[in-house]
Amino acid sequence: MEVALSTLQAQLREAGELTFNVRVHPGARKTQIKSVMADGTIKIDVAAVPEEGRANAALVKFLAEEFGVAKGNVEIVAGETGRKKVVRIVA
């Protein structure tokens, strides 16, 4: 997963913004990138439960840390209430 993450980080640095698909597994033991699906969707385990926006908040915080940006620079563009999400990150 490091390869996929480093590729996305490089794209963010080059373009200044990045949009990608995520499939979230809430209620996991640990928040981490699990795998990359054949279509390029990134599967992420999130330790928070999907109640009252906790899983979304944990996802935003995790991605902000991984990409070295402020939480305000990470936005869930689509899929707020589902497992499939579109995420936008601005450098």
Give the fraction of residues assigned to helices: 25-40%
Strand order of the largest sheet: 2-3-1-5-4
Structural class call reads alpha+beta
CATH architecture term? 2-Layer Sandwich
What is the 3D shape?
A: globular
In the predicted model, the low-confidence regions spanning at least 5 consecutive residues are none
**The first-level CATH class name:** Alpha Beta
H/E element sequence? HEEEHEE
Distance between the termini: 21 Å
What does this structure look like?
By secondary structure, this protein is α+β, with helices and mostly antiparallel strands. The protein has one domain (2-90): 2-Layer Sandwich (Conserved Hypothetical Protein Mth637, Chain: A). Helices cover 31% and strands 35% of the residues. The protein contains two helices and five strands; from the N terminus they run αβββαββ. It has a five-stranded mixed sheet. A hairpin with a 5-residue loop joins strand 2 and strand 3 (42-46). The longest helix is centred in the first third of the chain and has 14 residues, at 2-15.
Q: What's the layout of helices and strands?
A:
Blueprint lengths: L1 H14 L1 E10 L5 E5 L5 E5 L7 H14 L6 E5 L5 E7 L1
Parallel strand pairs: 1-3
Antiparallel strand pairs: 1-5, 2-3, 4-5
Which key phrases capture this entry?
Conserved Hypothetical Protein Mth637, Chain: A; alpha+beta
Q: Can I get a quick summary?
A:
The chain is of the alpha+beta class and 91 residues long. It has helices at residues 2-15, 54-67, and strands at 17-26, 32-36, 42-46, 74-78, 84-90. The chain has a single domain (2-90), classed as Conserved Hypothetical Protein Mth637, Chain: A (2-Layer Sandwich).
